[in-house]
């Protein structure tokens, strides 16, 4: 059964190969060790060669306090980033809307023209300078972006050379309307982004979402299908949605997609019009919470080891090995398209051989 | 913006309309009440008319002990079903493999020819008789099924007239292989099913999965896109995967798809070769655990109210109202197909207007 299994033909469109980030602190485990433990086949041999690569790096989640003073917010974020870099962080994740209060009144006032750069965008200029000077990768939370006559909620990613690698505009705007209780409609001022953002960095392939984007499993599935190692969601869930779903959604995305998920919230300010839940978190590819916090200002440091993703793929071979699962996130659409044409009874599934390895 | 939003064109293939199950204990809330609370638009008016329908019924999850005595297992299940019906249950969910020990040695011995019926399948004959005599719907957990020279892990659904409404064959077989520790490969004896199973019953539209099927979010997404109210997963997670993922997966499926999820495990038998986790559970459309248990034999009773799904759709209008979300589970495939052809930068998202209503 295994011999007839051709993973390269099982996923349409073909998945991008996993990038091989530069190894900063690598250890090599002899393949023989794994051969001893697991029942390998030629697919694994071909995939991993004779070594399992361990790639470690430190991530910092900067759960920043945010004030009405933009210059203070920028200087404050810069200090937090530098402190984290001093402690060895190679990847920094900032909160959603960290340079401005989270309000429709503030967005137009605090918005910056990111594409113009320079004085038109002091927030991203700072991020660029710090990433270059410290040789770190920064997922710059989000800030209000002005582009022509539109405003976006945008996350900028800077590489170790200070260059802007990617810009994600929040796709799914967050509107809440409880008459007499709470009303917040991002769509009053903001325009929604139009595409997913996946970016190759020196610390792996990263998919970006902002806050409410995390509710859409299909976005995470797209990133997984494209070989992401890590999903980063700057996000300010509130005091209702936070306790209900913040951790659940992170763990679900991580476990379903078998990759790391990092989130970063602003610290809670009980006096602001929109009160953030906090609880920035790093979740591993088994849905395990590696590090989390309450709502106060803090910087969380944690180590990420992408070899865990590969190990977990051995142990719980859901995505990488099964023909059905290999179709993975593409399966839904393929099935529904087929189903739509041919009716539910004609739906073809293929299943060859499932292997679940566990500790 | 709202005026240009045509939900009927936003999902391809078109979603099936929600079925309207017979109302056994219905209350009607004046639309005006909801109008008072929420900011309705013509879409909601068209969808719900002037009434919000409350549809309540009781579900029973029979976490049965299973022995090597098949006749005892059948009589035991029958008694549990009758007891639950006596207490008002209109829908009964049984565990995965409830008439046989969970082992490859047992599957061929205990397997029944469901299609032949009668003496060839005493387990399903009992289910049919009880469902008819008590006028209840039964999601019959699963039993080993013999069909020609193949064996399947199959779940039979019986309507209130005793007729077999659907039969789901487990799609994703569960194989575990830890040399020297634990080995179990369903695929040694079983053949995988080839299609999803969604069934209209007198207690709503129900999507069926068996155990490992729950790991595949795309299967749940298919059911959600087809208008399911409830997903039922008979399942015997084990002592490793149970504490890791059993609850997480149920809550994730429910919250992501905004529907009810019910699971039913066999009771734990520490002396068996495969030790089940137990913890049968009912989860609501917000990912909230309504009722759960430990590992002992028990029957859980809970009330399901499908109007909660609609209410939650008002409060967290993720699936029903957003153009992006309306494409819903079909989005992944559509996007990936498009992305595959045109590259990641050409991916078209549409976003009109998001509205989140919360309590």
Automatic annotation (TrEMBL), chains A, B:
InterPro entries: C-N_Hydrolase, C-N_Hydrolase_sf, Nit1/2_C-N_Hydrolase
Domain CN hydrolase: 57-306
Pfam families: CN_hydrolase
Record key words, sorted: Hydrolase
Recorded superkingdom: Eukaryota
Protein name per the record: CN hydrolase domain-containing protein
Keyword Hydrolase: yes
Entry-linked CDD domains: nit
